[in-house]
Amino acid sequence: MNLVDILVVEDNPDHVELLVETLNEYRVVNHIEIFETGEEALARLKAPGKNRPGLIILDINLPGLGGLEVLEQLKKDPTTSDISVWILTTSNTDSERSRADTLSADRYMVKPLDIEQLWSAVNATRLGWGLLE
Amino acid sequence: MTLRYVLGRDDFPARWHCGNWSGAHGWTHIVSDLATFAAYFAIPLVLLYYMRKRKDLPFAHMMPIFAVFILSCGTGHLLDALIFWYPVYRVSAAVKVTTAVVSWLAVAALWDLTPKLLQYPSPEALRVEVASRRLAMQQLQEKTLELEKSHADLERYARLLSEDVLVRSAFEVTPFGKLIVNPEGRILMTNPALNEMFGYQSDELLDQSVNVLIPEADAEHHHKRVESFFQDPPREKQYKMGIGRELSGLRKDGTTIPLAVGLTSLDTKQGRLVLAHVADTTEQQRSEEFIRVLFEKASDAHFLLDDSGILECNTAALNLFGCATKSELLGRYPTDFLPECQPDGSTSREWLKRLQTEARAHGHYQAEFTVLSREQGALTCDISLTAVRISGREAFLVACHDISLQKQQQEKLKARHDEMKELLYVVSHDLKSPLVTINGFVGLMVSNLKKGRHEKVLDSAERIRRGAQTMERLIDDILALSRVQRHQATRKAIRVEEVVQEVLESLASDIEKSQAKVVVEAPLPPLVNDEGMLRQILLNLVQNGLRYGCPEPGMELVIGGHRVSGKIHLFVKDSGPGIPNQFHQQIFRLFQRLDKEHQGTGLGLAAVTKAVEKMDGRVRLESEPGQGATFWLEFPERGTAV
Fold first, then answer.
1. Does A111 reach chain B within 8 Å, measured CB to CB?
2. Residues 354-413 of B with CB under 8 A from A
3. Which residues from chain B sit within 8 angstroms of residue A113, using beta carbons?
4. Percent of chain B with pLDDT over 70
5. pLDDT in tens, B50-69
């Protein structure tokens, strides 16, 4: 099984640390790449000769380009539209949920991240997860 | 003595033979006597003729005496003529005796008559008498005629009254006052409603002049009207009196009442009369007045519109369209006062047409529109059109309510609401974010402690503390912003230098930390404004300057100001990295953070913007990347009173 590369777009270093720690806790061994802004993440995805990630974990409140705008661009671009995108945010408004839904986000998860919720999400996807037993 | 003796003529010669008569002399006697006799004989005949013709001749009883007297005189003369041939002297003597007797009888009779004859007036006196009698006679005749006429009048009226019971009751039993007037303006009949209307008893008005019912001021006009009505009654049977002017009636108690009067000309057998129908319009006028006041004094603009333009309008409509008098507005079309286009993009002409179509279809239509007021420029109004019919013609009752103020307030409220929504959203996010951090690292710390992995615990604790500090700062800044927003601005003279000193003292620890060189370019111009707001502004700007503008120790932060053409300009200038042009507007909005390195909340400059607004001032940024940043404040020298 090919392990998927995970791309995280999150500006709050504390939250990045928590996410990484949580994944480590569950012994997820996939490759994780972290970007602070949407612009940087998009540049990385469009850069030639780089591996395509299998999963993007995206925050909504980002400096500059917002998470939902990043999502829109990803889903519009045929080269990235099939990548799974999970929204991970502190915002829990109906308008953002429905907008994310309209833009075909694969999941919408609210911080603080419930480990069980993340776990079931991981199990439910047919992505290549590398888990240390 | 026998008759033969008397008639005997033998004792005397004929006169011709007695004496020496010449023929001429004898015949003169004879002819004269005969002529006298003839005349004397004719006189009684003439008298007789008179008597037969004038039976009323006075003294008629004297006539026979005079006749006998004249006849006996005449007979004497006849005998004198006959005696020339037949000497009947004895007969002659007898005749003379008779004549003498009769003559004395006549004298006696005349004498007897003298007193009566003396009583007869002279002809002059008679003439005067006759003239005066004639005059009296004439007057008498006139009086008689008058009496006859008035008698005829009375007879006529009596007949009129009794003509028909139905007509009579139609006249009596009606809520309208009725009266019948003759050409002289005399009241012949009134009905109970009229008596009550004018406060009279049942028959009190009969035979009075109609003028008792008319106020003095109107009497002259009324008189003329009545005169012309009788002379030339209008062709229509029923004539409305006083069209175009207010008619009023005078009551018995001296008060006046408004009236509507209709006149009918009655051509009766007895001549032309006028039947007046009178209605008391007090109630009608009162309700008309109420309606007029309701219309005129309404605060919303109302007007009536048809194809020919505006028919009628109220004062508020004049104000709305900026017209001083009705003549400026009536007959005009509303589009004359509307801008070329309406908010929905259609031309005002099309737009109004559409409104009329909708109102026609639904009876009523409401919309929003923009009107050009002469004084206030473009105003937003709420307009409603109601289709009505005026005198059988289609028209629209238009009501306009100026909602510019509400619109402005609505926009202000909406801006405020949007701002609050944004604040709430960002606050929830920005407050939640450190909470997630705190929660997460507490969990991680617990887990690591359990597993005995102590090397990571310190890092977690540090992150938890920073999260708590972020929350505290955020809460402080939100409270500061809220204070600014709620602040009731005041105006007083501010010594700006003192305020700057206070701000620098309160930021002493920040200044020390940044090791910046803070310069105040004294003197600073004084101004009249809100001191609390100025302090808040300077605090935020100096704090920002220290935080972002002085990244290296020893960098300069300059505070200065001057007065330019009635405005006070203050500035806070740093020599830091500067801010790119594209962020110059955005930076003043809520939660806009440009720098990831520093722990700003994104509320500082938003609070500055609010505070500057409260001071009627402006704030702007002058900066180029690498050239430092200068925040300029501009205030009026004396802030407007609040």
1. yes
2. none
3. 440
4. 92
5. 888 887 777 777 788 888 88
Under a CB-based contact definition with an 8 Å cutoff, are residues B178 and B193 in contact?
A: yes
DSSP class of residue B525 equals P
Q: φ and ψ at B12, to 5 degrees?
A: -130, 145
Cβ neighbour number for residue B232 with a 10 Å cutoff: 8
Q: Do B429 and A111 touch (CB under 8 A)?
A: no
Give the whole-angstrom CA distance, residue B576 versus residue B553: 11
Orientation of helix A67-76 relative to helix A38-46, angle to 10°: 20
Q: Do B436 and A112 touch (CB under 8 A)?
A: yes
Distance CA B80, CA B34 (A): 9
Over residues A5-17, the pLDDT tens digits come to 889 999 888 889 8
pLDDT of residue A1: 52
Instruction: Please judge whether B436 and A90 are an interchain contact, meaning their C-beta atoms are less than 8 angstroms apart.
Output: yes
What token pair was written down for B292?
């007029």
The chain B residue lying nearest A115, using CA atoms, is B440
**Nearest CA-CA distance, residue A13 and chain B, Å:** 10
Query: How far B610 CA sits from the closest chain A CA (Å)?
Result: 24
The SS3 call for residue B147 is helix
Asked if residue B244 has pLDDT above 50, the reply is no
Q: Is B467 at the interface with chain A, CB within 8 A?
A: yes
Check if the beta carbon of residue A111 is closer than 8 Å to that of residue A15.
Answer: yes
**B231 vs B224: CA distance, rounded Å:** 11
A window 9-38, beta carbon within 8 A of B: 11-12, 14-15, 17-18, 21, 25, 36
Question: Considering only CB atoms, which chain B residues are within 8 Å of A21?
Answer: 444
Q: How confident is the model at residue B374 (pLDDT cuts 50, 70, 90)?
A: low
ipTM reported for the complex, 2 dp: 0.86
In DSSP notation, B474-523 reads HHHHHHHHHHHHH-----EEE-HHHHHHHHHHHTHHHHHHHT-EEEE-SP
Q: Which of B428, B463, B596 sits opposite A14 (nearest CB)?
A: B463
pLDDT score for A133: 52
Confidence of residue B595 (pLDDT cuts 50, 70, 90): low
Q: Which residue has the tokens 């928590």?
A: A18
Considering only CB atoms, which chain A residues are within 8 Å of B474?
none
How many angstroms separate the first and last alpha carbons of chain B?
172
Chain A interface includes B561 (CB < 8 A) = no
pLDDT average, residue stretch B596-621: 79
Given a contact cutoff of 8 angstroms between Cβ atoms, the answer to whether B567 and B529 are in contact is no
pLDDT digits (tens, 9 = 90+) for A21-53: 887 777 777 888 999 999 999 999 888 877 788
Q: Is the pLDDT of residue B407 over 60?
A: yes
Mark yes or no for CB contact A112/B429 under 8 Å.
no
pLDDT score recorded for residue B34? 92
Asked if B433 lies within 8 A of A90 by C-beta distance, the reply is yes
Residue B357 has pLDDT above 70, yes or no: yes
